[in-house]
Please model this.
Amino acid sequence: MEKVRIGLIGCGGRQGAHMNSFEQMDDVAVVAVCDPVAERAEKAAAKFGAKRIYKDAADLFAHEDKTTLDALVIAIEPTAHIGVEEAAVEKGIPFIVEKPMTLDLNQAEKLAKAIEEKNLITCVGFQDRYLDLIEIIKDELPKHKAGGLVYGAWIGGIPGVWWWQKKFTCGGQLVEQNIHLLDGLRYLYGEPLSVYATCSRGIVEPGVDAKPEYDTDDHSTAVIRFKNNVTATLVSACYSKDIRPNCGYVITMPDMVMDYRLRNNLIIKTAHETRDIDRQVDQTLLLDQAFVNAVKTGDPSYVRSPYGDALKSLKVAFACNESMETGKVIYFEEK
Ligand SMILES: NC(=O)c1ccc[n+]([C@@H]2O[C@H](COP(=O)([O-])OP(=O)(O)OC[C@H]3O[C@@H](n4cnc5c(N)ncnc54)[C@H](O)[C@@H]3O)[C@@H](O)[C@H]2O)c1
Model:
């Protein structure tokens, strides 16, 4: 395959980051695009000289198949995943899909099964798995006595997209946004044993600080237990306005503290030294390159977060929501 022919489904904010990658890659050609917002589709098509512009995913699938497209990048809102990935699987076209892949667990489970049966290459947009700073943490952890506390935080404002204002359309901040740090915890520590989570509203005033329809949580806290005496507290908040605390992880071990500042730098402290390491890579570019390499070679191992693995992070995030609703601890394995 000379150039990997790519179709874009959804041409909103996040697709912009994938488009930046493809502009830097010689081995891809974006040949088809679609978005119900025609200007977005046209703008994306113009960037790449793509001639095939469709009104939505269904329209694209009515005209395209694996003889015309080698891969798809799906970046649509969490509740828009209606028959989109199913069509890609049916037609056997490998795809990147953004997290959260859907808010419907039943759909995600069926898709994961179908993807596995077809052996289809997939990649979920967990960009941090390709981040150099996360690689450093992953290399460092096994050199120390296992166990300790991890504080994870994503505290910011309300993203500008319309669908973020309602929990029904975004899934809540943990599912939509802090799932990045949640997936990172799984990447570093393996499968969780249990979660307990709480949430709160009342700081953000609908119609004043947010759109009148705002009804998602202002903040939540999840306590996630892992094997080897690791317990993580993952906090999410969207009420910040002018000033924000550090986000990322603080990983505490008996002989080291790793202070990872979200996608920016990593401060490693021991009794004898402090090292401050800046991020050197564009992790979304690395994710896109990994996926394209997988498509070109047929080797799925380039991808660090295939659909089936990402589903495990989605399930943990949904379990946190369940715990927020019921007040119960959700156990995944032994108590
Ligand atoms: N990996 C990351 O770091 C990251 C960052 C931001 C957003 N995201 C995720 O990316 C997804 C999209 O977020 P966004 O910020 O780009 O949202 P957005 O609202 O800016 O863009 C979504 C686009 O999808 C289009 N769309 C909806 N249904 C469609 C369909 N059936 N066919 C074609 N296009 C359709 C919409 O018209 C819109 O233009 C979300 O799941 C979000 O959580 C991931």
Observations:
- Residues 9-15, 34-37, 40, 56-57, 75-78, 80, 98-100, 125, 127, 161, 176 surround nicotinamide-adenine-dinucleotide (CB under 6 Å).
